[in-house]
Sequence to fold (73 residues):
Amino acid sequence: MTDTTSELAAILLGQPLGDWVRVKRGAGLSWSHISRDLYIATSGRISRTGETLRVRYPDPSPDDADSTTRQTA
Fold:
């Protein structure tokens, strides 16, 4: 699902917002920290709560990670 805010974020970040969020989560950052980083990285143009980001870009479930590992092995 794409909306104009996500499109603007992608332009400002230089990559899709979902990819940016996944990198931050992969680094172990909390949802609230990612929310603050998004606001800072976009010079205050994009403001999304950590809860909004969590709902839109959820962490993969452990089952998803296992199936990815099995597919690439």
About this structure: The two ends are 31 Å apart (CA to CA). Residues 4-72 form one domain. The mean pLDDT is 88. The first helix runs from residue 4 to 13.
